[in-house]
Amino acid sequence: MVIINPGNPTGQCLSEANLREILRFCYSKKLVLLGDEVYQQNIYQDERPFISSKKVLMDMGSPFSKEVQLVSFHTVSKGYWGECGQRGGYFEMTNFPPRVVEEIYKVASIALSPNVSAQIFMGLMVSPPKPGDISYDQFTRESKGILESLRRRAKIMTDGFNSCKNVVCNFTEGAMYSFPQIQLPPGALQAAKQAGKVPDVFYCLKLLEATGISTVPGSGFGQREGVFHLRTTILPAEEEMPEIMDSFKKFNDEFMTRTNFIIITAVLLLIIYKNNWEREKKRGEKHFLFLGGLMDLRLSDCHECVQVEEIKCDPIQIERTIRN
Ligand SMILES: Cc1ncc(COP(=O)(O)O)c(C=O)c1O
């Protein structure tokens, strides 16, 4: 079983009770737990501080602490270092037989080593400046400053998303991501279908085209059917954040209104034409139903009225025609 805590893409932090439950489950099913804890420094609330799976496992005592096999991961590319260019990381294995550890050690030793600067970063990460060291004050000030700024950015982003039409977003408790749910109206689903795109991919592409904001559609991570998300990071510079969120809001609110407007317009046109058709039909005149090529309706006759059996419409074309 794999857990990412704090989480990517959702930015959640697991509580101690969550972790105990997961470890008990792994024990009962004899599963190895891979604990990806690379965002352990990135915490933006005080209610659920980071607790490592290893600590919880050890606190649970025997038989769990002696038997559950756990691999814990960490890297230099997150935290306040954010050194994505430096490829350095480690994993620690708990409760694995020495022979397995030896084999893994052998495989790791014959692979290419990280470059020297990445190894230096790794050393600094596991052994940061201590009180009394020459750089201790500066290190503490800078790392605290970066984390406080990320906390503010997490709040600006969550509040920004929650102020948008049809968008709901949980607070980014940890990691570096915001994962708002985008509630797409029927017009947008229809437009995405016409474009041959998954709805949240369609939304993210339109967002990119309109604003230059690049996001990851939730469908890339797997999500409940009919539910749509996007993932974005809270990493843009703090001073640029309000402008970015304004730009997102402007795009989103227009997108939601426009796609709804298309469907409402289509339905109104349909009602008007259907009424006309019935009136004409009563007069016994031959009539063609034609909406300027916008819609195809399949109609069936009964004695008194006309029933619409099927509607095919192209919201993009409708929108274009309305604009023109
Ligand atoms: C959950 C998670 N684990 C691991 C990594 C990779 O870390 P690294 O930069 O050391 O390859 C990432 C990178 O984005 C991540 O999101």
TrEMBL record:
Indicate the segments forming the Aminotransferase class I/classII large domain, all copies: 1-246
CDD domains according to UniProt: AAT_like (cd00609)
Keywords from UniProt, A to Z, are: Aminotransferase, Membrane, Pyridoxal phosphate, Transferase, Transmembrane, Transmembrane helix
Q: Where are the transmembrane segments?
A: 255-273
User: Which cofactors, by name?
Assistant: pyridoxal 5'-phosphate
Record pathway: Photosynthesis; C4 acid pathway
- Subunit: Homodimer.
Instruction: Indicate the family of this protein.
Output: Belongs to the class-I pyridoxal-phosphate-dependent aminotransferase family. Alanine aminotransferase subfamily.
* Protein name (Swiss-Prot/TrEMBL): Aminotransferase class I/classII large domain-containing protein
Organism, by scientific name, is: Brassica napus
